[in-house]
Amino acid sequence: TTEQRLRRPDGKPDFDISFYVMSKDGRYAGTSMYKGQKFAVTDEKGTRLEDCLSLY
Predict the structure, then answer these.
(1) Banded model confidence at residue 49, pLDDT cuts 50, 70, 90
(2) Which of 2, 16, 29, 40 is the most exposed place for a label (fewest CB within 10 A)?
(3) Is 6:12 a contact under the CB 8 Å cutoff?
(4) Contacts within 8 Å (CB) and 24+ apart, 12-18
(5) 18-22: strand order across its sheet
(6) What is residue 15's DSSP assignment?
(7) Tens digit of pLDDT for each residue in 10-36?
(8) DSSP assignments along 31-52, one per residue
(9) C-alpha torsion 21→24→27→31, nearest 10
(10) In 3D, which of 55, 8, 48 has the Cα closest to residue 28?
(11) How far is CA 30 from CA 5, 10, 24, in A?
(12) Residue 26 carries which DSSP code?
């Protein structure tokens, strides 16, 4: 963002946002602005938490 009030002193965004995506063929991913976010997956291997990919 270019809005200064939404930035931390180091210039990075002062908020987090996550996206979760799944394709028709069953591929999936989770992504987030910062490290440490997880998302739940249930498939033939069972239910588990996986790490989101992160920008920072």
Answers:
(1) very high
(2) 2
(3) no
(4) 12/56, 18/52
(5) 18-22, 28-32, 53-54
(6) S
(7) 999 999 999 999 999 989 999 999 999
(8) EESSTT-EEEEEETTEEEEEEP
(9) -10
(10) 48
(11) 27, 25, 16
(12) S
Other residues' Cβ atoms within 10 Å of the Cβ of residue 32: 20
DSSP letter assigned to residue 52? P
Tally of helices (H runs) and strands (E runs) in the chain: 0, 5
SS3 9: coil
Count Cβ atoms below 10 Å from residue 30 Cβ, excluding itself: 20
**Model pTM score:** 0.74
**Structure tokens of 23?**
């394709």
What is the C-alpha separation between 20 and 35, in angstroms, rounded?
15
pLDDT tens per residue across span 34-44: 999 999 999 99
* Both structure tokens of 17: 């946002």
